[in-house]
Amino acid sequence: MKKKITEAALILKKSRFTTAFTGAGISVESGIPPFRGGDGLWSKYDPSVLDISRFLADPAGSWVVINEIFYDFFNSAKPNKAHLVLSRMEKEGMLGRIITQNIDNLHQEAGSHMVYEFHGNSKNLRCLHCRREYLAGQISIDHLPPTCRECGGILKPDFVFFGESIPQMPLAAAYEAATISDVFLIIGTTGEVMPANQIPLMAKEYGATIIEINPEPSLYTNKVTDIFLKGKATEIMGKLEDLLFSPTLDNDQDGVD
Ligand code: APR
User: Fold this and answer.
1) Which residue of the set 107, 113, 119, 143 is catalytic?
2) Residue 255, helix vs strand vs coil
3) pLDDT digits (tens, 9 = 90+) for 201-229
């Protein structure tokens, strides 16, 4: 593994433009469960609770589950080492942008600025009637569904439900990243959800080197991944950080076993 991590660090250090593509796995060690896998949220809750048609038909019922899944967990979550290393890489000019499928705001709280949220962000609520936006923390969710102070309309979390379209800005930023990146660093995603899961495939077609971090293989691993770093995000990103900011990395390559 040392050889592969050193190889990955050398590639990242030499890259002109690197994009990190992150999924729920990067936030697992911040206490936010993944969606899929043995203890995933979708093994406890029915994913249809995030269908937009179901939300519109039964906002109160949907809000009960949404509150339990997203607002109970998310409020206490803090960025972990993996989020912080990506933020440091951005500061040091080693990371161009983050395309995240996550809605937990942890990249921003870790200090990353070039973050594009493919599925929106759970920190905001939006009125379905007048489109007014509120911070989730500003609105009492003792009475569900929460309603707009101005027009009484129903408030919906401002993240993308199944059946809704991807916001234009992150979509465009993701497509652009796929065409300009030398390296795509995929962290903690199964690669199962369309259309987000197409972005790394596009990057590969445009010639990007794909480095993947995951304790388990994903749909990318045997398809497009060039270097698979098997392990937890905090563990691998911690090792990458040591190498990336080591003054001897470039000569270490001869000593790699
Ligand atoms: N470090 C890195 N990866 C991890 C860790 C960890 N500590 N723990 C789990 N993983 C990996 C799992 O092996 C899996 O590949 O994270 C991935 C989590 O997969 P999903 O829960 O499916 O998350 P993701 O791929 O981001 O889901 C995509 O699905 O339900 C929708 O909108 C939701 O954005 C989400 C999308």
Assistant:
1) 119
2) helix
3) 999 999 999 999 999 999 999 999 999 99
Clarify whether residues 139 and 217 are in a common domain: no
My answer on whether 255 and 190 are in the same domain is: yes
**CA dist., res. 249 & res. 6, Å (int):** 8
CA nearest to 219, candidates 12, 21, 15, 16: 21
Q: What's the 9 CA to ligand 1 centre distance in angstroms?
A: 23
C-alpha–C-alpha distance, residues 194 and 191, integer Å: 8
Listed in sequence order, the residues at least 6 apart from 143 whose beta carbon sits closer than 8 Å to its beta carbon are none
**Pocket flag, ligand 1, residue 156 (CB < 6 Å):** no
Q: Are residues 113 and 39 in the same domain?
A: no
Find the domain containing 245 and state its range: 1-31+78-119+165-257
Quote the tokens at residue 45.
Answer: 């809750």
**Does residue 128 sit in the same domain as residue 56?**
yes
Would you say the CB of residue 161 lies under 6 angstroms from ligand 1? Answer: no
Q: What is the mean pLDDT of residues 232-254?
A: 87
Number of domains in the chain: 2
Annotated catalytic residue 119: yes
Same domain, 204 and 237: yes
Q: Which atom of ligand 1 is nearest to the CA of 162?
A: 32
CATH number at residue 39: 3.30.1600.10
Residue 81 neighbours by CB under 8 Å, 6+ apart: 29, 233, 234, 237, 238, 241
Smallest CA separation from ligand 1 atom 17, residue: 189
Buried b (16+ CB within 10 A) or exposed e, 122-146: bbbbbbbeeeeebebeeeebeebbb
Q: What does the pLDDT read at residue 72?
A: 73
CB of 219 sitting under 6 A from ligand 1: no
